[in-house]
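Re: [help] complex structure
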Amino acid sequence: MLEVKDLHSFYGAAHVLHGASLQVAPGEVVALLGRNGMGKTTLIRSIMGLTPPTVKQGEVVWKGEAITRMKPHDIANKKIAIVPQGRRLFSSLTVTEHLTMFKSARATEGWTIDRIFSTFTRLGERRHHRGNQLSGGERGMLAVARALMQDPELILMDEPSEGLAPVMVQHLEGVIAELGRTGLGILLVEQNLYSALAVASRVYIMETGKVVHSATSEELAKDEGAVQRWLGVHG
Amino acid sequence: MSGLSRSKSPMGALVGVAVMAVGVIAPFFLSRYQIGLATQILIFGMLAMSIDILVGFTGRTSLGHGAIFGASTYVVLYCVTQAGLSPYLAVVLGIATATVLAAVFALLAVRTNGVYFLLLTLALGMIVWGICLRWTQVTGGENGLRGDIRPKALADYKDFYWFILALAALVTFGIRRFVQSPFGLTLRGIRDSDSRMRSLGYNVPLHLFIGFTMSGFFAGVAGAVYAFFNNFVSPSTVALTQSVESLLMAIIGGVGTLYGSFIGASALIALQNLVSSHTERWQSVLGITFTLIMIFAPEGIVGKFRALRAKYASKH
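Output below.
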């Protein structure tokens, strides 16, 4: 269980998160929605211990243990993985090398290369291609696959569908929904309301550094007022 | 910078076997002087390859590896000539000293990069050089340490060459396995982007520390056997020139190629010896040659060859 309690984060003197709070239960897919600049990525970075920003108040608790201000590698060791915004792949490494960086290709426990290539068949076909030789969709898949190779219990996904063609977004939604069914917790940052509603069981909406609305996906889908007010989307 | 693909190429293996075969039979055709040069090339090839772990695979350029290499040479010569230890034990102590020295360098340097890393390793190397120059009771000062320390089993120059050839093959295999391991891939990730690796949850300073220390270990292996080859060490062995020349070997061969280090060492040592036997202005000739290599093959000789091969393959 991930609990974020009243988190205040700063970029220098700029106060960006103003007491953000949320929860992700084990095996739950939760979406974090909000317009640009509302603090979604800052919240993800704060949970992962990445600096900047600096967390000055509040707490991040993972499975009962406070992980606030821990180093990112210590947080990663606690089985929390991240799919960063923009994917952040390595141009000189092949698909296989991106994946075996976390775990030997001969590993048989948890997520293995074979399991990844059977889940993401396109990556298997492109296994010898380098990070800069992949299409946007393949890059998105590889970023998710790379996180899975850490055998996480929770993945923080920062706009994995950003810039993808609709068909690729649909494919990714299918993968995320499937991962959710395997018991993996996912906190999904999205700008695309319909993508989020398709895969998440619960949704948080952020506005100017705070979580201002929380609902199940079904509730939000019916609440046109909230959607229009917080996300500027007309149903 | 080229990476080393993990895929096994039958052609690559064939070339490796052919090179080894030529290396093994070479002493039957070469003069004693030429075998000496070949031995020197293998030793400095190992040193350049240890530098390539940092330059080619981690993106950190070290100017302190001459000091790490030379420290190992000093310890081996001191242990045998002054302390009366067995040469084999001396080699172990020499490599251990180089590894510890590299770990100390790494502790101080891992939080820097770019020109700061370069300058810090240069400064640390200069400290070692200063110690070797001034600590005359132990290092012999400017006179250095001298002695016929090579074990009897390797006394014959051909046997010694074969021993170094086998060691170079072992070191190459070890470094290749290291850079292709999951850990080696993280070093390449760090080379591409520190911040990217941090954001994925990697302890970048720890990985750099281990990478630097491993690199120092291999430099120590080269330094230890150099003591057997040269039977002499002086401050010039740990000087900045040593670091620069070894770095040049890695660059001329092609950083990130590993095997290029032996090509670079061959080019530098062969040119030094050939040109200097014909003209006193050999250093100018070397300078011009390396300038031309950097202009026409900035990726190094092996790097250029791979680029041309890839270009040819894409056309056919």
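The interface with chain B takes residues 48, 50, 71-73, 75-77, 80-82, 84, 88, 90-94, 96-97, 100-104, 128, 146, 150 of chain A (CB under 8 Å).
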